[in-house]
Amino acid sequence: MANIRDVAKHSGFSCSTVSRAINNTGYVDENTRRIIMQTIEELDYKPSYTAQALSRKSSKTIGVIVSEIKNPFFSDLIDVIYERAQEAGYRVIISISSNMPEKECAAIDFMQRIYIDGIIIAPCGKNDGFLTTVNTPLVVVDRPVEQLPSVASDNYAGGRMVGEEFSRCNVKSVLCILGPSHFKTSFLRGKGLVDMLLAKGIPYTVLESNDEMSFSSEDLANHLRTGLYDGLFAWNGTIGANALKCMNTLGLRMPDDIQFITTDGSMLSDLLMVSPTMLIQDIKHLGESAVDMLVDIVQNKPLEQKHVLHPMYLRKQDTTQHSERRKKCEDGI
């Protein structure tokens, strides 16, 4: 395999001249550049990606670190980030932290060693102090860190919308499945919901899931068997899918026996032949905003906003029904 010394030898120019021609890091006259490029083609020389990054102090690459690729929210978000980064002329490297601080630190360290231009991260929530010391440009997505530039959904307002919908549906008591308290997404979504339920005088119980992908189905089933709840909220789509399976197993009908709202649960329609009422995040704008913000930081452009919040919206479907409509259905109207 040809190397830069072979190109220098065959073209008749020094290694430093060949390097400048390849990396566009200094003046090389057009005739010299033409000869070097022709030699590269003849020798089928492939420049070292790492060496180019070292020479330019830039790899034209963005790193993306998320907690869990199996979470449909993050897989969809990565798709958007990838497309937007390509449009901006950047490659993308993806790493998974599994919500473990040590994996998060290792991923950041690796990306810095290969001269990554910047990092978009959905942090695990246990490493915020470390993140503020990272020298590489960094944008936080989904789970804001106060000291760092961030892009997120307005989870508090989204939670309030869920509480308002339960109130309109005349729900008497709500079971809320939330994520671990150190997940700011779940915390803010839950706080908005609880604040609205308190304002409406609706009793509630909170179940905390073990992580963002799982919770105790047995614990949920035991709560639902009591018959105390006619409303159920799941803080993300994966938890929502498991909750729906649990309700189906128990023979609970929606919305007649229980009214159900989940978040980002579009996959549930295909899996379980039901279209749940959903709190929706604008994943496209989240991903695009994160890339645009990071590119501005990398290019030393001033940020219009350090913290960007995108609104959420509620898509009302099969698993909730307002009290007026329910009464008409019961009366056969």
Task: Give the biggest beta sheet.
Answer: 6 strands, parallel
What Rg do the Cα atoms give?
A: 26 Å
Shape: elongated
Number of helices, counting only DSSP H or I runs of 4 residues or more: 14
Strand order of the largest sheet: 2-1-3-4-5-11
SSE order:
HHHHEHEHEHEEHEHEHEHEHEHEEH
Strand percentage: 15-25%
Extended strand count:
12
Identify low-pLDDT runs.
Answer: none
Q: Determine the fraction of residues in helical runs and give it as a percent range.
A: 40-55%
Q: Report the end-to-end length measured between terminal Cα atoms.
A: 79 Å
Return the average pLDDT rounded to an integer.
88
| Helix-strand category | alpha/beta
Q: How would you describe this protein?
A:
The structure is a single chain. The chain is of the alpha/beta class. It has helices spanning 4-11, 15-23, 30-43, 49-56, 72-87, 101-113, 128-131, 155-168, 184-200, 217-225, 237-250, 267-272, 283-298, 323-330, and strands at residues 61-66, 91-96, 118-121, 138-141, 150-153, 174-178, 204-208, 231-234, 259-263, 277-280, 307-310, 313-315. The strands form 2 sheets. The chain has a 6-stranded parallel β-sheet with strand order 2-1-3-4-5-11, with helices on both faces. It has a 6-stranded mixed β-sheet with strand order 7-6-8-9-10-12, with helices on both faces. Helix 11 links the parallel strand 8 and strand 9 (259-263). The longest helix is centred in the middle third of the chain and has 17 residues, at 184-200.
